[in-house]
Amino acid sequence: MKDFYTMGIETSCDDSSVAILKNDREVLINLISSQIDIHKIFGGVVPEIASRKHLEAINPLIEKA
Q1: Would you tell me which of 16, 17, 45, 62 could form a disulfide with 10, CB atoms 3.0–4.6 Å apart?
Q2: In this structure, are residues 15 and 32 in contact, taking their beta carbons and an 8 Å threshold?
């Protein structure tokens, strides 16, 4: 059987993450960019800021993966 790879992208709240899996079972890489420090000063997640930070973070994460 030929190997296949899956890229997973997650941007649902205040973290951006990218993972690459081999054959749906082996995690080859899992990268996370946290926004905790940014939102801490507001006492919680600010959706508009989070969405902008996802846009800034996702391409560098994909390139690194």
Answers
A1: 17
A2: yes
CA atoms within 13 A on the CB side of 35: 25
- For residues 41 and 11, give the distance between their C-alpha atoms in angstroms, rounded to a whole number: 21
C-beta of residue 58 within 8 angstroms of C-beta of residue 16: yes
Residues for the chain: how many in total?
65
Place of tokens 């800021």: 49
DSSP class of residue 44? S
Tokens coding 8: 């997973």
Average pLDDT estimate for 2-26: 95
Phi first, then psi: give them for residue 61, nearest 5 degrees. -65, -45
